[in-house]
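$ ./design --mode recover --in tokens.txt
reading tokens...
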């Protein structure tokens, strides 16, 4: 409280009425405020690095500064942060950083209030560009003004988070802990008092700079230690200048860093602590340059350093048996790898060259190889890490943009990978990377897509690169598996063969054996002479996606109608396949899921989906449903240039159309309407949404089934 206007005596009376002796004891007050902060941080996913952070409530925000002030006032009776220097709870340098960070956040918050005309603490996309301009940031060659501004914001909240942790720990030691507790020695440089690690004296780091890394290894080796004492955190900050080129070239430090990566427990936790204390960015200078760096789009939810540490964290979870239930297949692959540190290093370096200009994969591969060689790893190990960094996007791009039912695609990818070990590392890195980029965009469809590509490539590698997968053999195996499933449902071979006579090779290559069995049983039990067609849909067992199939006369253009209806229902479509049959019908299959992941697809929802898709059967080409859903608020802030490229698919006699555009409701149905108007048939569509951008690939032909030739 502060006196703005009015009688001073009244203000002083109020201060007395709620004075320290009338409220909780320092111990109770501190414990409750600490619990309150932990709960508040959980609401923001324990990171101040969200794309649209809350200037007040997020970790490292203004509330964390107030938290320090409240506890200090209750315990010491101080009125200002300056008085904490007198109590030796803050150094003059820390006081300057605290006040500087607070002043920056105040300016940002004030700018938000000016822009919105109301109390607004959320730094939304709608405001970030304008505030960057207001604060004087300008676009540079490789970095937008808004990215520079947000990097300053993220680095500020990181510094304030560090100060908050250190000061609250000092308060905990002063308020709750026994100052006379006996310290237990760990080694010549460190001891443990009240459960916290601390240096034996103030000159430890100056006498032995390697202790700046040793500290994190000791925390891994002694899991009962609760953390680092606040005074020692301050010592680390004051001695960071010791991490210079000589420190980085010291073989002992190389051994310590690799020991931290190879430790059986605490790898991610200590890498995060190293980043928070400023050690990681100095030990790996290229990592230091990505600290707080954001990419102004909706796909990359976190800053580059936060994303990188999430990727390493995901890899660690694959490596630890008690997380096997999360991703059983990835866990099996990861736990079979003899040197998991190769995966961790590839995760650490995969995006390390972001924002430098040029191809970040190529630049990062060079950094990764030299780092590994400097640290005494073998040339083969160093090259493996560099290869993974260089090709870290290859598996996800192949799975999401190409037809992995095509043996040629698999053989080409197998040749790029080369052997099973490289495939294993690339697979776990890809899943960890995509999951760590934007949790909202990870789903069971991507999981099954990546696993399918992994298993098909494994099979190709077992055959040997000199014996590429044969399409006829692949079709035969799928048919045998599907036939076994159908026999369990008492579908006779005669009925199976009657349906399969309608199918071509492309159908069998494109679909999994369980999909073939489902389609076959459905058609065998239906009137395939129906003039209007047939519809079926099923929810994938144990997944979050729905598969729908439409059997319609080929003269009907169902893609535009089906995508419009599904879009209006609030579904996001991830895959579409259109297979012409031998009886002038076609089989159109779609895979889609709820845009709102909180919604459950129950039986009533499935009934609504089937009913909506049935309307497609009677719709005319001129009657494509209008999609009325609004473009999401965040997506409206971006302008994405529309680009369309055509290329020949000589193997299958089709034309490949790649489309990059702003994603919006109704986009696919509009594309489908253009295809209707231009007399274009769709063979397959690979739908990939990257934040605010759609990167879709269509395999198309003219109405006679030939590739497009006219300009």
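writing sequence...
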């Amino acid at each position: 409280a502060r006196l703005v206007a009015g009688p001073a005596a009244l203000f002083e009376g109020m201060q007395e009425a709620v004075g320290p002796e009338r409220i909780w004891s320092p111990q109770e007050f501190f414990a409750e405020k600490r619990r309150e902060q932990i709960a508040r941080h959980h609401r923001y996913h324990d990171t101040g690095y969200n794309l649209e952070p809350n200037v007040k409530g997020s970790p490292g925000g203004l509330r964390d500064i107030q938290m320090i002030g409240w506890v200090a006032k209750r315990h010491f009776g101080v009125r200002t942060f300056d008085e904490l220097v007198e109590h030796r709870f803050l150094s003059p340098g820390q006081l300057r950083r605290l006040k500087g960070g607070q002043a920056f956040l105040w300016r940002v918050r004030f700018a938000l209030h000016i822009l919105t005309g109301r109390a607004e603490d959320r730094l939304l996309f709608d405001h970030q560009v304008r505030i960057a301009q207001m604060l004087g940031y300008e676009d540079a060659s490789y970095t937008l003004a808004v990215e520079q501004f947000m990097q300053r914001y993220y680095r500020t909240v990181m510094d304030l988070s560090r100060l908050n942790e250190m000061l609250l720990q000092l308060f905990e030691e002063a308020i709750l802990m026994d100052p006379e507790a006996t310290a237990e020695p760990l080694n010549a440089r460190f001891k443990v008092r009240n459960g916290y690690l601390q240096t034996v004296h103030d000159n430890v780091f100056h006498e032995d700079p390697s202790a700046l890394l040793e500290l994190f290894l000791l925390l891994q080796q002694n899991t009962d230690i609760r953390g680092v004492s606040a005074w020692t955190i301050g010592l680390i900050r004051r001695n960071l200048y010791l991490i210079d080129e000589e420190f980085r070239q010291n073989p002992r430090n190389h051994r310590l860093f690799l020991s931290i990566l190879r430790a059986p427990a605490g790898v991610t936790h200590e890498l995060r602590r190293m980043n928070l204390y400023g050690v990681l960015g100095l030990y790996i200078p290229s990592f230091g340059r990505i600290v707080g760096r954001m990419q102004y789009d909706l796909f990359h939810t976190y800053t580059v350093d936060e994303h990188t540490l999430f990727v390493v964290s995901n890899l660690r979870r694959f490596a630890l048996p008690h997380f096997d239930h999360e991703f059983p297949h990835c866990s099996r692959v990861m736990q079979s790898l003899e040197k998991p540190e190769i995966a961790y290093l590839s995760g650490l370096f995969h995006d390390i060259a972001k924002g430098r200009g040029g191809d970040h994969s190529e630049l990062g591969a060079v950094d990764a190889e030299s780092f590994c060689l400097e640290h005494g790893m073998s040339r083969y190990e160093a090259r493996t890490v560099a290869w993974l960094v260089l090709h870290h996007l290859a598996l996800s791009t192949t799975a999401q943009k190409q037809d992995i039912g095509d043996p040629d695609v698999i053989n080409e990818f197998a040749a790029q990978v080369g052997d099973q070990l490289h495939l294993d590392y690339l697979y776990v890195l890809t899943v960890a990377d995509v999951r760590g980029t934007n949790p909202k965009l990870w789903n069971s469809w991507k999981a099954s897509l990546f696993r399918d590509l992994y298993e098909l490539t494994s099979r190709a590698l077992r055959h040997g690169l000199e014996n590429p997968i044969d399409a006829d053999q692949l079709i035969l195996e799928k048919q045998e598996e599907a036939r076994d499933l159908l026999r369990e449902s008492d579908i006779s071979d005669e009925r199976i063969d009657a349906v399969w006579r309608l199918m071509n090779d492309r159908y069998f290559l494109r679909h999994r054996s369980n999909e073939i069995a489902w389609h076959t049983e459905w058609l065998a039990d239906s009137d395939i002479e129906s003039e209007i067609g047939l519809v079926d849909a099923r929810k994938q067992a144990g997944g979050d996606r729905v598969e729908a199939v439409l059997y319609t006369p080929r003269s009907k253009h169902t893609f535009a109608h089906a995508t419009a209806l599904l879009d209006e229902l609030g579904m996001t479509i991830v895959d579409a396949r259109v297979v012409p049959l031998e009886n002038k019908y076609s089989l159109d299959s779609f895979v889609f899921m709820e845009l709102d992941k909180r919604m459950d697809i129950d039986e009533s929802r499935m009934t609504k989906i089937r009913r909506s898709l049935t309307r497609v059967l009677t719709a005319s080409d001129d009657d494509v449903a209008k999609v009325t859903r609004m473009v999401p608020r965040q997506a409206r802030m971006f302008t994405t240039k529309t680009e369309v490229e055509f290329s020949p698919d000589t193997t299958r006699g089709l034309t490949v159309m790649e489309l990059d555009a702003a994603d919006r409701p109704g986009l696919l149905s509009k594309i489908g309407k253009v295809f209707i108007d231009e007399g274009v048939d769709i063979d397959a569509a690979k739908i990939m949404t990257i934040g605010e951008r759609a990167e879709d690939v269509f395999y198309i032909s003219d109405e006679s089934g030939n590739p497009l030739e006219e300009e």
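exit 0
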